């Protein structure tokens, strides 16, 4: 049995969101193909994801300086404890499915906060004399990304900073198997239904072998 983190970063629902509609088709097909696996849905708009704010940075600084966890303020303890729970859950999972729209050429802020929370030395990567080394080489990941225009090919490729960012983060963690499903051109109303239909068909195909 494998644990799959189904990580969604859109405030609407599948009837209103192209990315979530394709993600829903993927995860339903995946569950049918892998009934023994555990799928954990993380709706990032409903999760408590602490920012790297003054409480977190000062708390970590105290710990590095020799303070014990009990010596931190209640707020520092709460936020640092929650960040630890997030990254531990991430490391324990075998597969990751990220679902997000492209906003301003990149990912929603909640997904950036989540990648910050999972980018912890000693958990997802480590520093060595030869540079950082990823600690998750046996994991698999998929990113489903919807966008109004086409960014995976053509003249807008240099502007794409959503999947490219997430891909680099996952590579930094050592993840070798990374796939993407692009739901592109959704701003053109006449072609949007065909874009969605094509992406859902691809999502089902990927789900059966993921």
Name its key features.
globular, about 210 residues, alpha/beta, 6 helices, flavoprotein, 7 strands, Flavodoxin_fold, Rossmann fold, oxidoreductase, 5-stranded parallel β-sheet, oxidoreductase activity, acting on NAD(P)H, quinone or similar compound as acceptor, two-stranded antiparallel sheet
Give a quick rundown of the structure.
By secondary structure, this protein is an alpha/beta fold. Helices cover 39% and strands 20% of the residues.
Outline the structure in words.
This protein is α/β, with parallel strands linked by helices. It has one domain (3-207): Rossmann fold, CATH 3.40.50. Helix content is 39%, strand content 20%. α1 (18-33) links the parallel β1 and β2. The longest helix is centred in the middle third of the chain and has 19 residues, at 74-92. The radius of gyration is 18 Å and the shape is globular. The two termini are 14 Å apart. The mean pLDDT is 97.
Q: Can you tell me the CATH class?
A: Alpha Beta
Unreliable stretches: none
Number of domains: 1
Under CATH, the topology can be stated as Rossmann fold
Shape-level CATH architecture: 3-Layer(aba) Sandwich
Largest sheet: 5 strands, parallel
The computed structural class is: alpha/beta
Biggest sheet, spatial arrangement of strands: 2-1-3-6-7
SSE succession? EHEHHEHEEEHEH
Enumerate how many helices there are, as a single number.
6
End-to-end distance, in Å?
A: 14 Å
Q: Which radius of gyration do the C-alpha atoms yield?
A: 18 Å
The total beta strand count reads 7
Oligomeric state as shown: single chain
CATH superfamily: Flavodoxin domain
Function: Quinone reductase that provides resistance to thiol-specific stress caused by electrophilic quinones. Also exhibits azoreductase activity. Catalyzes the reductive cleavage of the azo bond in aromatic azo compounds to the corresponding amines.
Cofactor: FMN
InterPro entries: Flavodoxin_fold, Flavoprotein-like_sf, FMN-dep_NADH:Q_OxRdtase_AzoR1, NADH:quinone_OxRdtase_FMN_depd
Family: Belongs to the azoreductase type 1 family.
């Amino acid at each position: 049995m494998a644990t799959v983190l189904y990580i969604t970063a859109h405030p609407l629902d599948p009837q209103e969101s192209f990315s979530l509609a394709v993600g829903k088709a993927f995860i339903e097909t995946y569950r049918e193909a892998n009934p023994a696996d555990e799928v954990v849905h993380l709706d990032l708009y409903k999760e408590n994801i602490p920012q790297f704010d003054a409480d977190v940075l000062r708390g970590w600084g105290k710990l590095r300086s020799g303070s014990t966890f009990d010596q931190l303020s209640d707020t520092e303890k709460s936020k640092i404890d929650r960040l630890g729970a997030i990254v531990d859950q991430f490391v324990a999972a075998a597969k990751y499915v990220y679902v997000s729209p492209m906003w301003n050429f990149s990912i929603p802020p909640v997904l950036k906060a989540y990648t910050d929370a999972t980018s912890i030395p000693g958990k997802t990567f480590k520093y060595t004399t030869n540079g950082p080394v990823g600690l998750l080489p046996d994991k698999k990941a998929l990113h489903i990304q919807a966008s109004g225009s086409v960014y995976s090919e053509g003249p807008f490729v240099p502007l794409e900073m959503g999947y490219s960012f997430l891909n680099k983060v996952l590579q930094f963690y050592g993840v070798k198997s990374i796939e993407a499903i692009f739901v592109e051109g959704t701003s053109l109303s006449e072609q949007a239904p065909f874009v969605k239909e094509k992406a859902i068909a691809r999502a089902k195909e990927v789900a059966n072998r993921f």
